[in-house]
Amino acid sequence: MNIVWKAEYCTGIEVIDTQHQHLVLLLNNYFADQPQQEVSPSVAWEMLKEFNGYADDHFATEEHLAQQTHIDETGLWIIHKGSHDYYIKRLKEFQQDLEQHTPRAVDKLMAFLSYWWVTHISGEDQELAKALKDALIA
Ligand SMILES: [Fe+2]
Ligand SMILES: [Fe+2]
Q: Quick check: 98 and 39 in contact, CB under 8 A?
């Protein structure tokens, strides 16, 4: 599986787009390294740590922009933050699953990561970017 970067994923906000492209690159690297077979638990562990760390930085970037443009008290941001919080919560659950050697935990983690990032980047982050840009020119 390979995620192809599409023009519609761009938000027009450079710092966000650069980080999103890096995330897609990371995902593709992990998927490409393990074609058609299950990722080993140690690689899954490394992947989980990397996606936790990078997501923290990325969510902080979006939160900082929301604060700077004073949209951080709007419903849009509250829902957006809820999505980020959901991701963090799910990754903690995956961490427990990996620790407990839950069957198919690695497959589920990889499916979650690719699905969550692609849908978040192409959906909610587009809405967020629009609100950020509207606030900047208002
Ligand atoms: Fe994002
Ligand atoms: Fe986001």
A: no
Name the fold adopted by 11-137. Answer: Four Helix Bundle (Hemerythrin (Met), subunit A) (1.20.120)
Domain segments of the chain as ranges:
11-137
Q: Please give the average per-residue pLDDT across 106-114, as a whole number.
A: 91
Cα(13)–Cα(7) distance, rounded to whole angstroms? 13
Handedness of CA 44, 45, 48, 49 (dihedral sign): negative
Rounded distance from Cα 37 to ligand 2 centre (Å): 30
Distance (angstroms) between ligand 1 centre and the Cα of 75 equals 17
Among residues of the chain, what percentage have pLDDT more than 70?
Answer: 94
Cα 24 to middle of ligand 1, angstroms? 11
